[in-house]
Amino acid sequence: MLGWKELEENCKNCQRCSLSDTRHNVVFGCGVPNAEVMFIGEGPGEQEDLQGIPFVGRAGRLLDEMLEVIDLSRDKNIYIANMVKCRPPKNRDPLSVEQDACIDFLRNQVALIRPKIIVCLGRIAATKLIKSDLKITKEHGLWFEKAGIQMMAMYHPAAILRDPTKRPDAFVDLKILQEKIKEICQTTYSTTDTEKN
Ligand code: URA
Fold first, then answer.
1. Is the C or the N end of the chain the one with fewer CB within 10 Å?
2. Ligand 1 pocket: which of 19, 24, 25, 42 to mutate (most atoms within 8 A of CB)
């Protein structure tokens, strides 16, 4: 296992798959390095590739707004990373071979952060990290325990933008997450008076 500095350096120089040929920036991850809650998306889009920061496009803005409802933010108490650290051309799904080439970076990030909760944003992260046959439409908002970590899938914010009828489910999932945080986390969420609707 590498420390943060070396890991980020290795990741930024990575050429393990062909996504490195077309990237502008490696999107390593951002947030609080000892966060109790970690969010894992799919892969960088156009804005993320240009800025080198995860979830900064339209979907990212929605994610930040949703997180704020339950008092979470990348500046304060969570860490955000992706399954693949380089943008798949035209925002296609990352291929299995690309995810496999990148997974050790994510594993190392998880090992350093040691989160109590991992939220998978969308099908790609959920089927790779929770279970390969997970059906996001049926199993979003459910808890799975893996290696002592509580894991849940939520709809990807881009899917919510594409299909706003998913919004109510997404907000129920946020409340489910908030309850779990209250139950098992210490530093991330200590008050009960921040509930907003
Ligand atoms: N979608 C993702 O899955 N990750 C990002 O960083 C941005 C959009």
1. C
2. 42
pLDDT of residue 187: 74
Q: What is the number of the ligand 1 atom nearest to the C-alpha of 27? A: 6
**Is the pTM value of this prediction over 0.85?**
yes
Spacing, Cα 193 to ligand 1 middle (Å) = 31
Residue 188 inside a domain? The answer is no
Number of domains in the chain: 1
* Domain assignment of residue 8, given as a range: 4-182
Task: Report if residue 192 sits inside a domain.
Answer: no
Answer for the pair 37, 103: CB distance below 8 angstroms, yes or no.
no
Q: What CATH number should be reported for the domain holding residue 108? A: 3.40.470.10
Ligand 1 pocket, 88 CB below 6 A? no
Q: Does residue 196 lie within any of the structural domains?
A: no
